Every structure is written in C-alpha cells, then in structure tokens.
Description:
Blueprint: H1 13-20, H2 22-37, E1 51-58, E2 61-68, E3 79-85, H3 99-107, E4 111-115, H4 129-144, E5 151-161, H5 163-173, E6 193-196, H6 210-213, H7 217-220, E7 233-238, H8 246-258, E8 263-268, H9 281-295, E9 312-313
Parallel strand pairs: 3-4, 3-5, 5-6, 6-7, 7-8
Antiparallel strand pairs: 1-2, 2-4, 8-9
Amino acid sequence: xxxxxxxxxxxxxxxxxxxxxxxxxxxxxxxxxxxxxxxxxxxxxxxxxxxxxxxxxxxxxxxxxxxxxxxxxxxxxxxxxxxxxxxxxxxxxxxxxxxxxxxxxxxxxxxxxxxxxxxxxxxxxxxxxxxxxxxxxxxxxxxxxxxxxxxxxxxxxxxxxxxxxxxxxxxxxxxxxxxxxxxxxxxxxxxxxxxxxxxxxxxxxxxxxxxxxxxxxxxxxxxxxxxxxxxxxxxxxxxxxxxxxxxxxxxxxxxxxxxxxxxxxxxxxxxxxxxxxxxxxxxxxxxxxxxxxxxxxxxxxxxxxxxxxxxxxxx
Length: 315
C-alpha cells in the first residue's frame, strides 16, 4: 500500500503575506472581492440601426437622425420614406424603439428614419415645445435631403409610439411651433401617419398630457386640429391601455371620417400601453402597417412577415 499523502495545511493570512508580500496580495484580492460583491454589469445599450446624420444643432448639442435604406437603394430612386419618433412621455426614450420595424420596412423597399429629439425635464411641467420643434425640423431635413437617399419628397410619412405618436400626428395635423431656425418654405407635413398607441389627444376628456398642455390644447393636440387635408392614418391600440381609452380613439376616428380623412384603427384585446414593442404584437402590428402602406402604393406585394393567429379586429 502506498503511503498516504498528508493534506496540505491551510494557508493562513500570515503565510500568504510571507509568501506573496502585502502589495501583491492586495493586488490579487481586491479585484476578486469587487467582482464578488458588485452586481453583474448591465448589457450594452442597443444602438440605433442605420447611418447617423446631424439634422440640426440646438445650442451646443448636435441632434441626429438615423437613416435605414433598402439594400439596393440608389440616389436616383424615388422611394417612399417613414420618419419615426420614439415614445417616452416626451421625457425619455431613444431612437432605437423602431429598430425592428425600420429594418423590416427597409427590406420591403421603404427608407426609414429614426429621430433623436430633445426631451423635457421631468421635474417641471413645461409643454412639449422643443419636442414638436425638433419633429418638424427632422421632417424638413429629410425632405430637403430626399435626393441624397433616393426618397420621393411627396411620399414621406411619419410614425411613432405614445409621445412619439403625438409628434408624428402633430407634424401632420397641427400648424405652428416651428423652430425659428427652420426654413419655413420647406413643408414638414407627412403624407401618411402610422401611429402606435399615440397620445394625440391632449384634451381634458380622455386625453393625456393635460398637466403640460393645460389650457393650450388647441396648440398641441392633433385630435383638436382635424381638417380635411390631414394625411391618411392607421392607429394601433390595446384595449387595456391605461393612458388612452378606447373611446378616445373611437372619437378621433369618427372626427377623421367626418372630415373625409381615412383613419384605419386596430384594437388588440387585453393589451396595455406599449404592447407593440414585443412580439407577437410587434409582428402583428407591423404586418398591418405593411398592408396599409401597400394600399397607398408605397409598398408592393404582400408582407413578408407571417403570423398564424388573428389578434386584432378592424371595425
């Protein structure tokens, strides 16, 4: 029988100090202790898809938008485009919300643009003047640079979610609040609207944003500025949205119909505010948006996305 090897004696602090020295020991232990007690590092933030372009400067800040072109796009093309605004209550969010939608619609032949805009301070109740100014500036920039991206300046639409849906609708339906530095000879008005649970009614009855808008509803609320020359619109809403009652969208659609403006509405049972950000509803709303744009002649053929179940009803 082989002799039994004795177990090694435990290394005590004095032994470690004698063997490694105090500095070398600290260099070994400190990173290990930091890694042990700190929470896991957060994943890297999602970046906007597309190429970045500065569309205007506000003070010392360069505001960017991100252009996603179809793979075969050429400057000589005259493609439709969709300018998209992220949500976040005018106080948060980033131009990454529609990364998936932009990538898909670009694969279908549309140029997509996601916009960075100035955000409001959460600690005060200022109205969204800077937000709507930036939205109009972005549309003007896209129209001015249409030839560079193969865009048809007559077929530039706007879209967005929640507060971003308000900005898209504002640019399409409300006059005023232009940035003083803009060239007002360039129209910011889009030719179509694609709106995901938009807070486009800022009035006191079923509206949102009253704390900021106050008595200036007519200045800011698209729902209170409906006219016969408004762009054709599609709106998606969850029936359990805690910010936008179904009755608010029904009232908006009725007013659009009275004005002679197309307004398609899709309601999703049991879904809350922001439901369109995750699948399966991201795909389902995107399929309907594709069909809407195709009905305008902006896309050709059937959607290349597939969904096997029916989750929405169009009254």
